[in-house]
UniProtKB/TrEMBL annotation:
It is found in: Cell membrane. This is ABC transporter ATP-binding protein. Residues 9-231 form the ABC transporter domain. It comes from the Bacteria.
Length: 231
């Protein structure tokens, strides 16, 4: 997987029902995104956006249809090495009562010198961290400091970037921050996403002007697909 992994994603007639509730969250969804491209997904609450992201992360297997990564069935890939190449920024940030460093390096087997700092720089949160007395050793959580919403979001982005993933997924992570913070983060996103296949789930249309492709979901179906100009 590792060597040739480029990050092209294709969905072919994918349907998925949550086994516990019987809710049919995605219905016959097909699309393709080339390596290095930026796909945006919009749609009302409950339309299936997070489900689509969850399926790419392979939290669940599809009921019918197929998901392919670089032309290979996602089902057939080694889950551990695949997930190591996918950076996921969830809707809600989860931080631990631990140092900033350990929060960013979370999930890595081994940390190279400078790796945490570089990820923080790429996520545009390095300067904020350096401004704390204890810098990367600053404790977060109950016994530590509280970061602002935008800072938390960027720590979460740094955590996704530290793996140098080929695929980046942002699950609606910007709707929780104010517009000013959103702009600040988006300003850096272009550079972050360069050369990576990126998927951004968003609420605000303004967030996704630069997408190569936009998918509009409604009740689990793709109702529109195209560029910002086309839609
Ligand atoms: P939002 O914008 O509110 O995050 P969304 O477009 O991301 O919504 P999904 O979270 O994918 O929508 O939800 C699609 C449908 O699947 C909804 O009806 C939802 O209630 C249901 N659903 C989502 N997650 C689960 C789950 N873990 N178990 C069962 N049903 C779920």
């Amino acid at each position: 997987v590792e060597k040739d992994f480029t990050g092209k994603i294709s969905f072919k007639n994918v349907s998925f029902t949550y086994p516990d509730t019987g809710i049919e969250a995605l219905k016959n969804v097909s699309f393709e995104i080339e390596k290095g491209q930026f796909l945006a997904i919009i749609g009302r609450t409950g339309s299936g956006k997070s489900t689509l992201a969850n399926l790419i992360m392979r939290m669940y297997d599809v009921d019918s249809g197929s998901i392919q990564i670089d032309g290979n069935e996602l089902k057939g890939l080694n889950l551990h090495s695949y997930r190591n190449q996918v950076g996921f920024v969830p809707q809600e940030v989860f931080l631990f009562s631990d140092t900033i460093k350990n929060n960013i390096a979370f999930g890595l087997d081994q940390v190279e010198p400078g790796q945490v700092e570089q990820a923080a720089k790429n996520a545009a949160v390095y300067q904020n961290i350096i401004d704390f007395d204890l810098k990367f050793e600053t404790m977060l959580g109950e016994r530590g400091i509280t970061l602002s919403g935008g800072q938390k979001q960027r720590v979460s982005i740094a955590r996704a970037l530290i793996k140098e993933p080929k695929i980046l997924i942002f699950d609606d992570c910007l709707s929780a921050v104010d517009t000013k913070t959103e702009e600040e983060i988006l300003g850096n996103l272009g550079a972050i996403m360069k050369g990576k296949t990126s998927i951004l789930i968003a609420h605000r249309i303004s967030t996704i002007k630069n997408a190569d492709k936009i998918i509009v979901l409604d009740e689990g179906r793709i109702i529109e697909q195209g560029t910002h100009q086309q839609l």
